Amino acid sequence: MESQQRMRLVALLIGLMVIAVAWDVVGGHRAAAPPPPPPPSPVASPQPPPTTGRSQTGSEIVPAESGGSSSLDIVARADMRRRIRSSFPLTYLSIIVAESSDSMLHRWDDRVDRPVHVYLARGRAANFRPEFLDAVRGAFARWEGTGLPVRFDLAADSANAEVRFTWRTQFDIDRTGETDLEWDRDGHLQSAVVTIATFDPDGRPLGNDDVRVVALHEIGHLIGLDHSPDSTDLMFAKAVVRDLSPRDIRTAQLLYALAPGSLR
Predict the structure, then answer these.
(1) Contact 228/198 with Cβ under 8 angstroms?
(2) CB distance 106 to 181 below 8 Å
(3) CA 90 remoteness from chain centre
(4) What was the pLDDT predicted at 71?
(5) Cα–Cα distance list, 89 to 45, 94, 225, 250 (Å)
(6) For the CA atoms of the chain, what is the radius of gyration?
(7) Does pTM top 0.85 for this prediction?
(8) 219 with 140: CB under 8 angstroms?
(9) What integer is the mean pLDDT of 186-201?
(10) For residue range 215-236, what is the model confidence (pLDDT) as tens digits?
């Protein structure tokens, strides 16, 4: 009898243990926290669009229509600068270039067979005399006698003129002549207006030889020269001498031995 009771008690205990284990398994599964969701895929930050055109570190490209300086052009300009520097003090072309605003050589190009057309107008200014036109012609002859490769047609009419000579009684500033030039982007002279006064700044009337000297100076500007710093040159800002100096001539000859245009 006692043996049967013990067996029932053992069976009861075993049953309770099975129930407890089963409950723990089922209850624990329900209580477990769900697995964390997978982290969201990182969203790529927006990138700027690709740069168009040249980058900030790129070099500028010269448009085809403008043309760029070839290596031959660069070498030629360097040689021109060397020749100009080495010509000082026999010429003053280096000073002209240094004081210019554009570092360019301005001159008439290929104008031997096609002379520059010059209109010599008769003046109406006080003290004008027809002999003044002969003085201007003499000044042109003096410059052409230096052997420069440029010729002037002094018989041109006003309609076809590239250079015009005009007259005025007196300038408002300290001068007796003035030359206004126009040139293209390559330094080729295109046209000019030369104005000569018939009275000096002090009110004294100019004579024939005075007009010749003024014309010599202004024709120097007309062919592309600027002022010399030396008072012994006719191209000094306020002419003291009355004829071309050897330096005037050498400077003009060097100018016409070089190509017009920029020296940079």
Answers:
(1) no
(2) yes
(3) 29
(4) 87
(5) 69, 9, 16, 10
(6) 47
(7) no
(8) yes
(9) 97
(10) 999 999 999 999 999 999 999 9
